[in-house]
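Much of what follows relies on a compact textual record of a protein's fold. A record is reproduced here so that you can trace the correspondence yourselves:

. . .
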Amino acid sequence: MKKFIAIVCLLLASLMLLASCAPSTDSPQTTDSSQSIETTAQPIETTEQICVEHEYLETARTDALALKDGAIRYSCSVCGDEYSETVPATKSIKILALGNSFTVDGTNHLWDICKDGGVENVIVGNLYIGNCTLDTHWNNISGSKAAYKFYKNTNGTWKTTENYRIIDALKEEDWDYIVLHQTSGSAGFANTFGKLDDIIGFMNDNKTNPAAKIVWHMPWAYQSDSTHAEFPKYNRDQMKMYSEITARVQELILTRDTISAVIPSGTAIQNLRTSYIGDNLTRDGYHLSYSYGRYTASLAWYSILTGGEIDVIDWLPAKYPEVQCYLPVIKEAAKAAIATPFEITQSSLPQGSVPIGTYTPSDPMDPATYLEGDKALAEAFGVDLSGYELLTWDYYENSYWYCTSKTGITTPKSTASTYHQNICTKKKYSVENELPVGTIFICDPGWRFRLEIFPSASAIYKGIRPEGSTTPFYILDEDFLNGCKYIAWSVSSYPKSDISDNYSQAYPHIRVYVPVK
């Protein structure tokens, strides 16, 4: 009996304790014991209701980017209640790259693309030394050497300053991102990254924005037929080079918590090579083409650093309007690289999937047939074609010129990505005696020509190889020739594809008018 009374007393004490924890209410309390148990049990169903004073602590943070909201998550240390706050997109970005010509390629269109995407304030800086390695960067830091060209874009125009030090560029702006890069010839080899942590430490110690993040730029592999002096280190194998570079990034970059992100330019370019464009994304075998090559890399930079959507971008470089025709596969390649940065994604439009533009079997085969239309076109450009003579030129099938690589013609084998894609002139033409300044090239829609220049008949050109062009009306000038005395050209479809069934059509669609002496 005593034991029963003790149990009853314990139960009554528990009920009194529960009643004392319940929140106050203006409604009268019932004296019915069963009702009392029911009403006092409800308030303690959630921990939040018995918490006298919340003490919220930040438990997680996603930083806002220029075009992407961030978030901060809080949790109450007393009751465990949680909530989140949105951090608005900054609409501003300041990017400093420490690299070489590959970071120049990657950032060339970046200012314009960021503005087109909706970033209101954009500043892009690039510290440049050709083929510069991480070791050289560290030596320049250690010696405080004014060894760089500093390219800076604050308003859509690049400004160049010679003899710049890293420390001066670093303190010139409150940079949001500092992008590092290893030169392409060394990017696939682990023993070339020894000074990376020293460089990162210097950047973090001297940056003026404490929140600035270190980002890594992953370069692309060379074109398959590249003559770059360091390509033999990768056995002249594009896929081996790509695999080694991506492996080093996963092994040496992703494992460092001092690096916050990777810009997968190399994968974006490799993805695009699986499209109908093929392995034609460089201007000299390793530097990106001024048009779609650089555009593709800049999209990767834009997406990673701003968080912006690639699909909203429709800005086009004024000098290279042909980019518009390639936008679907360019954007596809860049988006796939962002999604899977270390894997190649095959294009939905591979080689052979796109027709060669305006070609039809009924197109005239004689260039002279186009004379009246050419006269009207020339008149629109303020030129009277009556003072010009239409050139008749002979061509080789499945061949092209490459003025920075060799003085002769290249005829690709069946395994080459350029197989059956070009015709070219059988000879170089003398600028002095045959094709002078003022010669006009007319190109029809669906076709593309690439002028190649040579300082002499037996010497390669030491400058940057000229880009291919789809411009309908081009007048040869001294600036383009850059002192060269000979010129030749190749012709391909636009977009590029196999033209072996209609080589003869390529010839009349590029017409050359020479001034009459």
The radius of gyration is 33 Å. Residues 56-87 form one domain.
